[in-house]
Amino acid sequence: MITGPIFMSGTLLNAVGIIAGSLVGVGLKRWIPQGLTDHALRILGLATGVISITGVISAMFVVDTQTGALISSGGFLLLVSLVIGYVVGELIKVDHHINAFSKRVENRFGASGFARGFVAASVLFPVGAMSILGSLNDGLLGDISILLIKTGLDFTASIILASTLGIGVLFSFIPLILFQGSITLLAGAIYPFVSPELLDLFSMVGYTIVLCIGINFVAGTNIKVANLLPALAVPVVYYFVF
């Protein structure tokens, strides 16, 4: 079994892809009229919503091999996770702290709208089975093939996001490195406990949070997505307790 900092290469490459894509997107943003940017943001929100719903459905529903009927599970856990996560997020003021940090960055570098791009991208990029499985393979085997595919996807997504939301998208590489890098470095300890069921539970909640981002983009609402982030821990705790 191989573990160690050198095998964070997949995550580091993923981060470089996000940075490069964001720089391209920020460069394009200067040439895109504001009206077109607004429409592009709504289209991006619609696409994000469709992808999120697909992710939630694939995590919650299975086909009965005998009857061919769809069987759903995890609905109540999803509700409980979101409620507990949001309450915890409000109590520890996740959204407030992120916005305060963003405000300091905006004032320091004149990067208006930093928070919106940073929060959206920070939730989008680490959520999903590819992040977890790719990081585990990187840490256990030095195999970065999954993260290579993810890098290509994130590179493309970061161009689109940064062209509409700005430079805040670039800084999402920081939480990505913290999340994926931790999994890689702890792969030997984590691997025995990671099962398809746990990945489904985690993805179910994660994609629902991503759906909230899509709703914000399309409808112009202000769901405090950052305050929902603690909800990701609830299905993990539930899995190991029950």
What is the secondary structure topology, with strand pairs?
Blueprint: H1 9-29, H2 34-60, E1 61-63, E2 70-72, H3 75-92, H4 94-109, H5 114-124, H6 129-141, H7 145-165, H8 173-185, H9 187-190, H10 196-219, H11 233-241
Antiparallel strand pairs: 1-2
Helix pairs in contact: 1-7, 1-8, 2-7, 2-10, 3-11, 4-5, 5-7, 6-7, 6-8, 10-11
Brief digest:
With 242 residues, the chain is mostly helical. The chain has one domain.
Based on the model shown, name its key terms.
2 strands, 242 residues, two-stranded antiparallel ribbon, 2% strand, disordered N terminus, mainly alpha, globular, 11 helices
Question: What does this entry look like structurally?
Answer:
- With 242 residues, this protein is mainly alpha-helical.
- The protein has 11 helices and 2 strands, in the order ααββααααααααα.
- It has helices at residues 9-29, 34-60, 75-92, 94-109, 114-124, 129-141, 145-165, 173-185, 187-190, 196-219, 233-241, and strands spanning 61-63, 70-72.
- It has a two-stranded antiparallel sheet with strand order 1-2.
- β1 (61-63) and β2 (70-72) form a beta hairpin.
How many runs of DSSP E, i.e. beta strands? 2
In whole angstroms, the N-to-C terminal distance is 29 Å
Write down the overall geometry.
globular
Can you count the helices?
Answer: 11
Order of helices and strands: HHEEHHHHHHHHH
Tally of discrete structural domains: 1
Q: Catalogue the unreliable spans.
A: 1-5
Cross-sheet strand order for the largest sheet: 1-2
The helix content, as a percent range, equals: over 70%
Estimated radius of gyration: 18 Å
Secondary-structure-derived class:
mainly alpha
Q: In percent, how much strand structure appears in the residues?
A: under 5%
Major β-sheet annotation:
2 strands, antiparallel
Average pLDDT number:
87
